[in-house]
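Predict structure. Chain length: 442.
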Amino acid sequence: MKQCYPRRLFTKMLGAFLFVFLVISQVIWLCFSLLTHHDTPFERDQRSLQQVQLSSIAAVIAESGPSAVPSIVSQWDPEIQPKVEILSPTTSLPEADDDKCCIPMVVSQRIEDKAGKHYLLMLDYRELDRFDGHDHRSWHDAIHIPTPMMFFAPCLGLFFSLFLAWNVTRPIRQLREGFAKISQGDLTVRLFPSMRRRYDELSLVAKDFDSMVERIDVLVKAREALLHDISHELRTPLARVQLAVGLARQSETNIPQSLDRIDLETERLDRMIGELLTLSRAEHDGIDIDQYFDFIALLEAILLDVRYEAQQPKVDVVAHYDSLKSVTVRGNAELIRRAIENVLRNALRYSARGQVIVVKLEVDRDTLRLTICDSGPGVAEEKISSIFDPFVRLQSSLSGKGYGLGLAIVRKVITAHHGEVSATNRPEGGLKITIRLPRWPE
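Prediction complete.
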């Protein structure tokens, strides 16, 4: 049964986008209103009323004099009756209100009647509640948002927020489904083809996801191939052991020969299993690499053993390095020794009588580079990239009876120590293997 999860991320992002949209739209509208202010309908109505009342009283004074003003004012609604003052023309006018966003509470005008007398008419609205703009505005006028926008902005914000939340959470949902398929063993899932047109960080995540799945697929197939090769390699000596047992049972005269064959095949099995254990140990992430040792001292010990083995085929091993210098390396000395020995023994196996194996060590500030060159037949260019794979054996009369695990162990050991190993054919003939390892700072 498919497990359902609440879309908390979608809900959070939707709410966040909607909130930010509304806040930004309000701030933009408020700034626009402050910079380019226009009267609201309420303010325009009050200003028009003030102008009508001022013009009416001024016309009455000009026609009939100040005595006719009370009769006109008494006919108005008490809510809009201002305090009327008729002053001397020499009275100074009140200062104008600089705040254009507010309704003026006092308006004035100079008037001349028929007799030629001059007056100063002032209308005072400060005692009227109607002209208190903050009390009579609607809440959307108070926040500087017109009525049409109050309906349009939330709808637009909701649509915009839904699109953003869906656009961000959709690839996350695809990633979750991809990981679910991987957990079920499906390594064919790929996300980048469906997300490549996003051109953002999420498409890069999808690309890295596909790379991860491809790498896992390669490792799984390599592990399955290794298991198949191990089974095949172990079956051959076991079949010979069974054959030797069968021959021993047929006749007592075959027992000594069969025991020798059984002893030989068991030695081969033991040697192969030992190499497989070394390969598995080198590949495991938990190997102990917290040891510190002198690489030159280790190299001298390895060369001493290899030169002893090289006496019979008459192969000379020449080394170029500073024996008085100390080079400290952090890692597992036993695994490093096994890896270098495998390379040297492989070079010794492919070297003919009288040929030379050259070992050269170059030390930099951060790395050391060990090169081992032989004068053997070399490796075909199309196969040189696969010589570090398990159970890869070259078809040569000098190859002996190895199992194709030596160079595979070398690569696993060097990689586990954060180093590199590579192989190239020498122009003058032979194979050159280069090992690079990080040097521990002095």
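Summary: The longest helix spans residues 201-250.
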